[in-house]
Each structure stands twice: as C-alpha cells, then as structure tokens.
C-alpha cells in the first residue's frame, strides 16, 4: 500500500515538473511556438528539463513532422496567399500542386487528393463569406474542410470518391 502511495506521489511530481517545464519553456520566448519546438521540449520530460531536451533534439537533428493536419493547413495557406479575383485560381493552383511532383508522394498531399471534393467545396464555401477578413481565409477553409470530411452524407462520400484526384495525370 505504501509503495502504491509513493508511486502515485512520484507520478504526480513528475507530471507537475513536466507541466511547469513546458510552461516555462513557452514563456521564455527562446523559440517560436511551433509543433516541432514544443515536441522537442517535451521529448525528454521528466528526465531532463524542457530546455535541455530541446537543445539535445536540435543538436542531434531529431525532427518530427508537424503532423498531417498542420501540413494540410500549410498547403491550403500557400494556395491562398493573396487576395483573389476569382474562385478558380486557388482551386486550380492547389490541384496542380497536388497532382504534380514533388507533392505526389507526401502523405498530406495524398490525403487532399483523396478528399478533393471536400477541399474544393470548403474553398468555395469560405470564399463566399464576404464579410470576413482575407487573412482568416486559410483558417476558415481548413475548418470547413475538417467539418466536411468528418460529417457528410452517403451521397457526398460517393461524390468525393468519384472526384478524387488519386489517379489524375500531372497537369502542365
């Protein structure tokens, strides 16, 4: 019983240490707040401090990917860089990016090719919202894309499968 109580106390102490280290690391403003920097800081906790963990991961070039969701957002953001005179340009630009090399083999690009119907619908929907600021467009498109991918009817799923870019030839 004492042993279990001691283990629980140690686990609570380790959790407190890890949480306070991450908080200190984020408040120090030594590094930008990105998924990669946060994961590097968390990698060695609670064995070493967040700063030491981050420095070791950087020194040994240990790099995790930012995750598919973040990479999908960045791809959407790159297609929607500047104010658009028409709907077609960002959609065509993104389609070209997704079916041409080097994007072809990247997992997040494959995800967008598979769900092309949903991303195209999300872009069109977000562009129709005229009262929102332009710099919020990538965020609105990503949120709408996520909503459409996770909540759709059977007919939308069939249409998405039919409009998939998975087997599309490169566009010149």
How would you concisely characterize the structure shown here?
The protein is an all-alpha fold. It folds into two domains: about 1-60; about 70-160, no CATH class. It has helices at about 1-25, 35-45, 50-60, 70-80, 90-100, 105-115, 115-130, 135-150, 155-160.
Task: Tell me the layout of helices and strands.
Elements: H1 2-27, H2 35-43, H3 50-59, H4 68-79, H5 88-99, H6 107-114, H7 116-128, H8 137-150, H9 154-162
Helix pairs in contact: 2-3, 4-5, 4-6, 4-8, 5-6, 7-8
Could you please describe the fold and organization of this structure?
This protein has helices at residues 2-27, 35-43, 50-59, 68-79, 88-99, 107-114, 116-128, 137-150, 154-162. The protein is an all-alpha fold. The mean pLDDT is 82.
Structure class: mainly alpha
- The strand count comes to 0
Helix content: 55-70%
Radius of gyration: 22 Å
Total number of helices:
9
Q: Which ranges are low-confidence, i.e. pLDDT below 50, for 5 or more consecutive residues? A: none
Cα end-to-end separation: 70 Å
Q: Write the H/E string, N to C.
A: HHHHHHHHH
Global geometry:
elongated
Looking at the chains present, what oligomeric state does this protein adopt?
single chain
List keywords for this structure.
9 helices, 2 domains, elongated, mainly alpha, 172 residues, single chain, 0% strand
């Amino acid at each position: 019983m004492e042993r279990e109580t001691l283990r629980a106390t140690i686990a609570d102490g380790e959790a407190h240490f890890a949480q306070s280290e991450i908080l200190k690391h984020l408040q120090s403003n030594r590094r930008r707040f990105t998924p990669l920097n946060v994961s590097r800081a968390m990698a060695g906790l609670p064995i070493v401090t967040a700063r030491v963990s981050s420095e070791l991961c950087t020194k040994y070039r240990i790099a995790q990917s930012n995750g598919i969701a973040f990479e999908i957002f960045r791809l959407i953001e790159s297609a929607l860089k500047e104010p658009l005179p028409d709907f077609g340009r960002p959609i065509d630009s993104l389609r070209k990016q997704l079916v041409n090399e080097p994007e072809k083999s990247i997992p997040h690009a494959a995800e967008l090719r598979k769900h092309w119907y949903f991303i195209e619908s999300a872009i069109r929907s977000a562009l129709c919202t005229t009262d929102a600021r332009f710099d919020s467009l990538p965020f609105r498109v990503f949120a709408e894309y996520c909503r459409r991918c996770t909540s759709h009817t059977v007919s939308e799923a069939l249409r998405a499968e039919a409009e998939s870019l998975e087997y599309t030839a490169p566009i010149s």
